[in-house]
Design goal:
Elements (H helix, E strand, L loop, with lengths): L1 E3 L2 E3 L6 E5 L6 H18 L3 E4 L18 H15 L2 E5 L3 H8 L4 E4 L7 H9 L3 E5 L9 H9 L6 E5 L2 E2 L5 E2 L4 H6 L5 E4 L5 E2 L8 E2 L4 H11 L3 E7 L13 E2 L3 H16 L1
Length: 270
């Protein structure tokens, strides 16, 4: 079991949601999305963590929108926390970001491409905040043991492990659902990143493409395979999003998706 402020998450007992826009665009839309997600989860008694990135440092193109940056982004996430009383998560990319991010964030997220960066992992662990580690697109699930060992060496065992697909040829990702029960043997709650798993990295030329229609299907399969949490990026009108629109779920479609995921989770763990 791990604890994140007012919520406790146990493998096989607590279905939870991590959701929000890919990147912070402005304060107003960020809070509006968070408020909608909070109500959806409250109506279903689902523990909820709001996700939005203050910086997308690994974009395909130099000209791609990255976000407002550390200082402004954390200010906006703090407003979300203050106004809505929800837990918040965001990515950190450099060890120096860990301490200031931990002053606001309830969960620090390690991007998949960076999950082997020892100094970043140690800095995140030393904050004593919960840490969500995304499994790299090039790692076998068994290799996450070494990632866990790095963070747990700091005494921090408040960890989540996230599956987000494996690189397969050019501009494509494939999800091997065997990774979910394999990573679950480490004893931490497993998250499935449904929307990044349907991304086609660099598939749209100067940016990534994706197929959002497949995200709910993979999410259901992941819950059936043993995932405890689902991570989805959502937006009111995904085609207008400044980042990851093709693989983001339309906000209004999420309630029906959550109902199906809850049904699957309860059937598996009844």
């Amino acid at each position: 079991m791990i604890s994140i402020n007012n919520i406790s998450l146990s493998s096989g007992k607590d279905f939870f949601l991590i959701a929000g826009p890919c990147v912070i665009e402005n304060e107003a839309i960020t809070i509006d999305i968070a408020r909608s997600l909070q109500k959806m989860c409250a109506d279903r008694n689902i523990p909820f963590i709001f996700k939005a990135s203050f910086d997308k440092a690994n974009r395909t193109s130099l000209s791609a929108y990255r976000g407002p940056g550390l200082t402004k982004g954390l200010q906006i996430l703090n407003e979300v926390k203050t106004q809505l009383k929800v837990n918040v998560i965001s990515d950190i990319h450099e060890p120096e970001q860990a301490a200031p991010a931990a002053e606001v964030l309830d969960v620090l997220q390690i991007p998949a491409f960076l999950c082997r960066q020892t100094d970043l992992l140690l800095a995140a662990g030393n904050t004593k905040k919960a840490v969500n580690i995304k499994k790299a697109q090039f790692l076998a699930p068994q290799d996450m043991k070494h990632v866990i060992d790095k963070i747990s060496s700091t005494g921090n065992k408040n960890l989540l492990l996230t599956e987000r697909g494996t690189s397969f040829g050019y501009h494509n990702l494939v999800v091997d659902m065997r990774s979910i029960p394999e990573m679950a043997t480490f004893g931490y709650p497993i998250v499935f990143d449904a929307t990044h798993s349907v991304q086609t990295p660099g598939g749209a030329g100067s940016c990534s493409g994706g197929d959002r229609t497949l995200a709910p299907i993979l999410a259901q399969a992941a819950v059936a395979a043993g995932a405890d949490g689902i991570l989805v990026e959502v937006y009111p009108e995904p085609d207008n999003a400044l980042c990851d629109g093709p693989n983001s779920i339309r906000l209004s479609d999420l309630p029906a998706i959550l109902d199906r995921l809850l049904a699957v989770y309860r059937a598996i763990h009844s």
